[in-house]
Amino acid sequence: MASLTACNSEVKEEKKFIEENTTFASAQTVKMLETTGEPNGKNFPRRINKEGKLSVTNKWDWTPGFFPGTLWYLYELTGDTVWQQEAEKWTWQMEEVQHFSAHHDIGFMMYCSYGNAERLASRPEYKDILVQSANSLCTRFSDTTQVIESWNYRKAWDGTEWFYPVIIDNMMNLELLFYASKVTGDPKYYDVAVTHANTTLKNHFREDYSSYHVVNYDETTGEALHRQTCQGYSDNSTWSRGQAWAIYGYTMSYRETKDPAYLEAAKNFAQYYIDHLPEDLVPLWDFNVGEEGYIPQGNSYAVQYPAKVKDASAAAITCSAFFELGEITQDPQYTDLAIRMLKSLASPAYRAPLGENANFIIMHCTGSLPHRSEIDSPLVYADYYFLEALIRYKRYLSTL
Ligand code: GLY
Questions:
Q1: Is 256 within a domain?
Q2: Ligand 1, atom 2, residue with closest C-alpha
Q3: pLDDT surpassing 90 at residue 306
């Protein structure tokens, strides 16, 4: 389907595709809710366990915001207030997280839950909670490094000590800061966000526009000391989900700032991703798995394991980002690719049968292969970005 010249019958067919996926996602999520029971702050769906059953987290993990976010997206797709009621219940379980500052993920945690709540069912409390969350995130920013610290001290696989590690994923947390400046009128959040994005642009990418996963900064001089990996194959490889976060993060940052450098960056990161895609448009968990010149980090597991596993979460994130990049640039290549990615994810190769996959929607994701964690598993954030992409596609079709 050529994205900008679709005729009426094609648009009708595509609307049916969205409806069918919405109906499926609703039915699958009803089953998920039967499994979780009522929310209690400790039962946020995250992945599948070794027995093929649902594995959950508490509210302090990096992923709890995605399930309330999924419920909000189902409300947005269906208009059914039953989803709104569920979404509200699950969102409120995270209220305490607004004060959390032990790592950078508060952006994911709170903007996917409360951010969607505020957007779809605005209440003054939501705004206050989001602004407090933005304040918590800003406590991790340093004027010296000019970036938000992602994790506290930890060691790389090779023993290198990271005193101020920043990961590419951190670009995603900036949306919370842009929001906070808009609603408070206080530019401080916006300034932190653009400073972080500018420093990351300088230090986190190679000449071919591929991304490093981790950059460790010297906290006293601000120098970028080490460029390594944690969840990728190799220090010099490109972790697929990291590249997806980069594409999404700079597309979103362009939307919020209109800085052409961010759009240029997003297009370049997208081109690297496109150039390395397999036929079904769902990448392996790392773009350089098993290639010559890339030494596996972590442990020998990455080489021993039949490492050609996919990461459908990277595909879902990029699919959603490409809908936005297509809208911003009006370049049909991004929208066409986004549609094809969505079709691939919605095909039986990646969309689970009803009642299977521990009631998650998308199969075949990889959390962190070097940690032997979440390999070829469903992951709650793949479902979240899949539904977001569906919403963006629906919106696109309504413009034709
Ligand atoms: N932000 C953590 C991950 O993508 O695994």
A1: yes
A2: 169
A3: no
pLDDT at 296: 85
Residues of the domain holding 331: 10-355
**Which atom of ligand 1 is least distant from the CA of 313?**
4
Give phi and psi for 140, each to the nearest 5.
Answer: -95, 5
- Report the atom number in ligand 1 closest to the C-alpha of 169: 1
In the chain, the number of structural domains is 1
Domain presence at residue 209? yes
Dist CA 149 CA 141 (whole Å): 6
Banded model confidence at residue 300, pLDDT cuts 50, 70, 90: low
Print burial letters for 63-88: b (CB count within 10 Å at least 16), e (below 16).
bbbbbbbbbbbbbbbbeeeebbebbb
* Residue 396: inside a domain: no
Residue type present at position 125: E
Q: Which residues contact 273 (CB under 8 A, 6 or more apart)?
A: 243, 244, 247, 283, 318
Question: What are the residue numbers of the active site?
Answer: 105, 169
Query: In the beta sheet, which residues pair with residue 162?
Result: 154
Strand partners for 67: none
Mean pLDDT of 131-155: 98
Residue of minimum CA distance from atom 1 in ligand 1: 169
In percent, the amount of the chain with pLDDT more than 70 equals: 96
pLDDT band at 185 (very low <50, low <70, confident <90, very high): very high
Contacts of 394 (CB under 8 A, 6+ apart): 15, 18, 77
Q: For the domain that residue 24 is a member of, what is the CATH number?
A: 1.50.10.10
CA atoms within 13 A on the CB side of 9: 0
Secondary structure (3-state) at 373: strand
Continuous H helices in the chain: 8-36, 66-78, 81-92, 106-110, 116-120, 124-138, 174-184, 188-203, 240-257, 260-275, 301-304, 312-329, 332-346, 380-398
Residue 169 Cβ contacting ligand 1 at under 6 Å: yes
pLDDT at 303 over 60: no
State the chain's mean pLDDT as an integer.
95
> Is pLDDT above 80 for 299?
no
Percent of the chain surpassing pLDDT 90? 91
Q: What span, in angstroms and rounded, lies between the C-alpha atoms of 106 and 119?
A: 18
- pTM, 2 dp: 0.97
Residue 4 in contact with residue 332, Cβ under 8 Å? yes
Structural domain contains residue 281: yes
26: Cα separation from own chain's centroid: 21
